[in-house]
Amino acid sequence: ADMGVHVPPMDAAPSHGTEASLEQMVTLHGGGSMAFIDKDDMFGGGTGPIIPYDDIDWSQASKILKHYLSEQNEHVQRGQKDVDEMLELIRRDVSIIDRIESRAPSSIREFLESDSFWHAVEARFSELDVDDSGSVSAEELYPLIVQLTDSAPWAVTESHCRSFSRLFDFDANGDISFRDFSKLLKTCILITSIDGTTEEERAAGHQVMAEAASVVEEVLDAVEQDVKCIDRFEAQCPEEVKSFLNSNSFKDTMKQRFSDLDSSGSGLVAPEDLYPVIIELTQSEPWAVTDTHCRRFAKVFDDSEDGFIQEEEFELLARFCVVVSALESQSDPPASAVKVQQPGG
Predict the structure, then answer these.
(1) Residue whose C-alpha is closest to residue 336's, from 186, 219, 164, 188
(2) How far is CA 83 from the centre of its chain?
(3) Do residues 37 and 51 lie in contact, with contact meaning Cβ atoms separated by under 8 Å?
(4) Which among 279, 298, 297 is positioned nearest to 212, based on CA atoms?
(5) Which site from 34, 75, 154, 237 is most exposed, i.e. has the minimal number of CB atoms within 10 Å?
(6) Nearest partner of 324 among 309, 341, 339, 303, judged by Cα
(7) Model pTM greater than 0.85?
(8) Of 37, 63, 33, whose CA–CA distance to 49 is shortest?
């Protein structure tokens, strides 16, 4: 139950990837070409003997520093990989959270139904919503992810935050609402209160995830085929749909949606930002759609092959989604490879 109350202190993340030269990185004691330097300061010691700047063997020092930075980089990569694996386990557990809840201790189940739980949700939500927007962004979930994965603060990246957020973004709007957050915190409490999953639960989780991924991939297969025939499918749409697709209303709606998805404001939509579109198209659970699915979907419409969706490319994507929705809503839809999964279907 403490998951919703206490946040461990965060240390400052280390800095990596600096482009400064070795001469710029060392600590100089004095000025000019004859300045003295503490040789241990180059590598964080600070207590070694002082030697003249001009006497430093920069070639040897550079090799030592590169080796040190290489080791640090490997350490960071290992930490980030550990977080990747933890998030994948959380994804699995989210897919079978009902099973996990059924064997939670009675005290935990009672707490999750109590006023105390909702007070904890309100308090933690308010604490994380630092900009008072009424929702929690992926970045604002950072301290919770550090706590849940028991990771070093520097190991959790912005990408990890987005991936975790999407597991509970039931509104598919890019942020965590209070309703979403209550489910998120409930899941965190259940996961941390159970001493590991059983072999049966792990097997069930993998099966559920595989089945969900199969549905998403089946739809993506269809998208890759059907987008080639968009003109033919559009011709089979009702007249009001054709009229809408040629109207200023469609263009305005498309531009607004593009702007909403362009989280960086760069005029480009990253594959991961297409997540809510894929959720709508496949009618999948949030945890079922992965970054790999997003990249595959984006590639279908990325004519420029720059790895992003430009506004003119997004127009075809939006047109395709409207056509698919129109055809699927007909009582006797024309032959189409796309089969949009309905909730509970």
Answers:
(1) 219
(2) 12
(3) yes
(4) 279
(5) 34
(6) 339
(7) no
(8) 37
Report residue 42's pLDDT band, with 50, 70 and 90 as the boundaries.
very low
Q: Hunting for tokens 């998403």 — which residue is that?
A: 216
Q: How large is the average pLDDT for residues 241-267?
A: 90
22 — pLDDT class (breaks 50, 70, 90): very low
d(CA 162, CA 167): 9
Q: Which two tokens stand for residue 125?
A: 């939500």
DSSP letter (8 states) at residue 273: G
With CA atoms as reference, report the closest residue to 16 among 104, 103, 77.
Answer: 77
Residue tagged 């209160």 (tokens): 193
**Of 17, 26, 16, 38, which is closest to residue 62 (Cα–Cα)?**
26
Q: Does residue 186 contact residue 46 with C-beta atoms inside 8 Å?
A: no
Cβ–Cβ under 8 Å, residues 224 and 300: yes
**What's the one-letter identity of residue 158?**
E
Q: Do residues 111 and 117 touch, judged by C-beta distance below 8 A?
A: yes
Residue type, 314: F
Q: Where are the beta strands (DSSP E) in the chain?
A: 28-29, 36-38, 50-52
Nearest residue to 55 (alpha-carbon basis) of 78, 39, 75: 39
Using CA atoms, how far residue 179 sits from 121, 168, 171, 213, 242, in Å, is 10, 10, 9, 25, 37
Locate all alpha helices (DSSP H) within 129-247, ordered by sequence: 142-149, 158-167, 178-193, 199-226, 230-235, 239-245
